[in-house]
Amino acid sequence: MAPRPVLLVATVAAAVHLAVATRYGWHRDEFYYVVAGRHPDWGYVDQPPLTPLVARLAADLPDQLLALRVLAIGCQVGCVALTAVLTAQLGGRARAQALAAAGVAACPLFVGSALLFGTTVVDQVVWCATFVLVVRAVRRTTVGAWLAAGLVAGVGLENKDTVLVLLAGVAVGLAVFRRDVLRGPGPWVAGLLAAALAAPNVVWNATHGWPQQRMAALLSAQQGGTLGALAQLPVLLLLFAGPPLIALWVLGVRRLASAAAREDRWLLGAVVVVVVAFVATGGKFYYAGPVLAPLFAAGAVSVEASDGRRGRVGWPVAVAVSGVLAVLVWLPTLPVTTANDLRAVSPFVLETYGWPQFVDQVRDAEARMPPGTPILAANYGEAGALQLLGPAAGLHATVVSGQNSYADWGPPTGTPDEVLCVGTWAPGELGAYWADVREIAPITYSGHVDGEETDLHAAIYDCRAPRGTWAQLWPRLSHLG
């Protein structure tokens, strides 16, 4: 690998992310990861245990949010560096390595994922590392090289089940284009190692009725199943790849399909299998996003081989344009009112804004309630914000929720005689659980900024006269989402 240009790209990327890392605030998912990590287990209804465990450890540091964001940025830098390594493996020299690395650093998919620490950004670096290690193992053919790939894939399976699709893609790609590789013991030993590392979460999932599969089915249905995924595919290939960088992944496809890349054509087979599998199962469009890394790598090799003078200017300009747009739209760089205007394009940035205001509004309402009144939040983001930001704001009430793994952690002690219900409840929903429901105040953000809570008319309610005990209400309050 050419260390200097790649190091420069990685340093610029890290510096840009760090400059705005904590400008707005926490993301709702980060609250959930930390709280889940404080309930250690081999799995949760919506994910394996790795990211919650790491998030919990980071949140034990003095600056919780900065620690989480540094982890996210580290994953982003890892993707940049690993793509450069992959480019070198495909025959790219310094120019190709720098271009591929810069492509990942400027790609909206990778930039936006590093906005927060979560399963997606960890998944991306696992995929990039797996591509690198499998290419290495195919070349070396040693069991040790394959074991390294199996180790990374197995750890990745404890973060996100999407790695299974990656491994299926690799297996099909090798079976079609490099069947000779599968005659040795290496790939099979690597698969066994990955399976062994994934086993604890699989056992947990099986003994709990396969909730992660139910969650995946729910998410697929919410976006319209296969047809919805197919409709979202252009979003990945055109918008999230970075419009100025479309030609780079197209060149990557052409390169891997050419005779010059015959030994590495299995990578193209893996990419096709991954995309088809996620579309067929109704997966979210960004699940397949990491396949852009090998396409960028192969495309950069093609660019270097052509050695055109126009490309020496055009490609840096394309990368710069894509990077600037990605940073402005997918990171908290703009004034919050401008980011609010861009919600239709990038809704995730605004999900990191306004949580302290939310907590303050709930604290003020809770102060008027009888001592010991519990708080029931409609979703995990609201519950996590109250639990993690509440104590510093003077809120010390018990906070529970029925969404996802919060439901497994159970209701509060005592009785539901009077409960402060907070969040995005459907009209009349609370009336099914309490006979006397009074709205105290709607949730609002300053500066006419919108968010999920304001979109769905979140509010704070004083709920009395329960229609059952906690034991009777809790199964009905529990839900996936």
Automatic annotation (TrEMBL):
EC number(s) stated in the UniProt entry for this protein: 2.4.-.-
One MF term in the entry's GO annotations: glycosyltransferase activity
Chain segments annotated as transmembrane: 66-86, 98-117, 162-177, 227-253, 265-281, 313-331
Chief location category: membrane
Pfam family, one: PMT_2
Keywords, sorted A to Z: Cell membrane, Glycosyltransferase, Membrane, Transferase, Transmembrane, Transmembrane helix
Localization, UniProt: Cell membrane
UniProt entry tagged with the keyword Transmembrane: yes
Entry superkingdom: Bacteria
InterPro entries hit by this protein: LipidA_mod_glycosyltrf_83, RgtA/B/C-like
Domain Glycosyltransferase RgtA/B/C/D-like: 46-204
Membrane topology recorded in Swiss-Prot or TrEMBL: Multi-pass membrane protein
Keyword set includes Cell membrane: yes
Coiled-coil boundaries: none
Family matches, as PANTHER family: MANNOSYLTRANSFERASE YKCB-RELATED (PTHR33908), MEMBRANE PROTEIN (PTHR33908:SF11)
Protein name (record): Glycosyltransferase family 39 protein
Organism: Pseudonocardia benzenivorans
